[in-house]
Amino acid sequence: MSRNAIFLLAGAMLALMVIVAISLQRELGAPSPAGPVLAAVQPEAPAPPPLTADEEAFAEALWPLHQEVVEASASRLSSAGLAFAIDDHDAHKLAAKVVPLRKVFHDARDKLTAISAPPSLQGVRDRYMTLLSLYEESATEMLEVERDGDEGHLINAQIKSGHAAEELVKVGDILWPGEHKPN
Description:
With 183 residues, the protein is mainly alpha-helical. 78% of the residues lie in helices and 0% in strands.
C-alpha cells in the first residue's frame, strides 16, 4: 500500500474518531468546548415542544435498542476499522469483528419494525431505519477488505458510518432532548 493511501486511510480513521467523539459527547450530554463568548453571541435555540404520550411511548420503546445496541455497536464498528488500519492490517480479524456487527444492525432494523410509531414520528422512525441500513452497509463495505484486499473500502465504510452517526445524533435530539433516558 502506498504512503499516500496510508495517510488517506489514517486521515479517514481520524475523521471517524472525531465523529464518534462528538457523537459520544452529545450523547452523554457533556458541555461543549465552546466558551461563554460563543454562548453570549449565539442565542439558544427554542426548546422543542414536549412529546405527546404516544410519542413518549415510542421514544421509551426505542431507547433500549438505541442506547444498548445501536450506540454500542456503532462504536465497536468504528473500533474494528481503526484497529485494522492502525494496528494489525489483518483482514480476517476485521471480518471476525464486523460480521456479527452487521447482523446486529440488520436485527435492529427488524426490532425497529416491531415498534409502532405515532404518525407524527413516522418520519423519525424512517430516518432511524435509514441510519441502521447505513451502518449495515458500512459493515458490508468493511468486509470487502477481506474479499479483495483493497483498504479503500474502509474509507467508503467510514463515509457511510459518518452519515449514520450524524443522523443518530439528529434523531436523538428529537426523541431524547439532552440525551436523557425517557421517563
